[in-house]
Amino acid sequence: MRVVVVGQGYVGLPLAVRAAEVGHQVIGYDVDSRRTELLAGGESYVEDVTAERLRAVMASGLYRPTAIAKHCAGFDIAIVTVPTPLRDGAPDVSYIEASGRTLARYLTPGSTVVLESTTYPGTTEELFGPILEEGSGLSAGPDFHLGFSPERIDPGNQTWTLESTPKIVSGIDEVSLKVIQEFYDGLVDTTVPVSSPKEAELAKLIENTFRHVNIALVNEVAMLAHDLGIDVWRAIDAAASKPFGFMRFTPGPGVGGHCLPIDPSYLSWRVQRALGQSFRFVELANDINNHMPDYVVRRLTDALNRRRRSVNGSKVLLLGLAYKKNTGDARESPAVRVAQLLVQLGAEVSAVDPHVVEQIPGLDERVRRVALSAEELTAADAVVLLSDHDAFDYELCRTHARYVLDTRRRLQGPNVDVV
């Protein structure tokens, strides 16, 4: 089939490449021409797609990146994987709306459109579908197929990939579901059909809210345990020995990526708008996780004070700018907030991250990007480990750092404090 994937980021690019690998003719459409130019040159900016895989599908002629909308014409199936950020606490679905208007111009009878962007329940049927209908003059169901299939990409995860992670699929009617499930059956090992797009949309938000709330729980416990003089990490290890009724979550400097800082708030917003009620678990989890960078800086301030130094004028080296280990994804990364707070307090901040190569929105220009070296470690008054990449030389850190605040429990030693 002729497949259009709208959005060539952490979700869309792996999906487009996989579709090409199984034999579909794929157009990777993105409004960012810088991205499509890199892709056209065989350069991948997503860890889950190696340059070799990208160049192979380019050479086969089955994948074509483009920033030109008219290249979307003639599609059999189009998949939308665009961002859905928050703006002042409310969902920003402008990218979904723009994608719908673009695809509507090229929608033909018998074609299929699938939304993968995480959003609030009702988006597919109440917002996206009507945009497609208005722009095309066709009716969803009788004239074209429509459904929602939430993305489950975990950047950098080598065990649960796009292919091996079960894929939830839905359609607005039985025919739409059948067509959409058959398409994804050719891409992934397992599909999980549900009865409606609303159920699929809610399922995605439940997944992320579950993680968000549980991470907030252990983050708050970590702060309380520190004040009580208890090693929270050892307590978590002990709790995890229970073979039932417990799932291990660990503390950190905050949450990042698209999912946890944003997606649960979509559900909270929808509940408030539709029912006039608050979703208290999400609001509490947001409050705790959003303030973890502040807690990290407070712990660092206390540690420097014990060493008769102030943050103002201290040299602080941050290890990791990505929101999680072994990935270059710095979206909503708590490291950016930590850096911002330290710069505001007068620290001279440097940062190391071999995975993050693109510009990071919101990162203060005064933060100096450096490579990890004995010289940088020795020069720093304090080192803060924020992303525990395997690429870091931890023995070098132990040997040369005067003091380390470790938010990931990767280091041990007399000069190391663990959050």
Q: Can you put this structure into words, describing what you see?
A:
The chain has helices at residues 12-21, 33-40, 51-60, 94-104, 123-136, 174-185, 197-228, 232-239, 259-275, 280-290, 292-306, 334-344, 374-379, 394-400, and strands at residues 2-6, 25-29, 63-66, 77-80, 86-87, 90-91, 112-115, 145-148, 167-169, 191-193, 315-319, 348-352, 368-369, 382-385, 404-406, 416-418. By secondary structure, it is α/β, with parallel strands linked by helices. The strands form four sheets. It has a six-stranded parallel beta sheet, with helices on both faces. Helix 4 packs parallel to helix 5 (123-136).
Question: Topology of this protein?
Answer:
Blueprint: E1 2-6, H1 12-21, E2 25-29, H2 33-40, H3 51-60, E3 63-66, E4 77-80, E5 86-87, E6 90-91, H4 94-104, E7 112-115, H5 123-136, E8 145-148, E9 167-169, H6 174-185, E10 191-193, H7 197-228, H8 232-239, H9 259-275, H10 280-290, H11 292-306, E11 315-319, H12 334-344, E12 348-352, E13 368-369, H13 374-379, E14 382-385, H14 394-400, E15 404-406, E16 416-418
Parallel strand pairs: 1-2, 1-4, 2-3, 4-7, 7-8, 9-10, 11-12, 11-14, 12-13, 14-15, 15-16
Antiparallel strand pairs: 5-6
Helix pairs in contact: 4-5, 7-9, 7-10, 9-10, 11-12
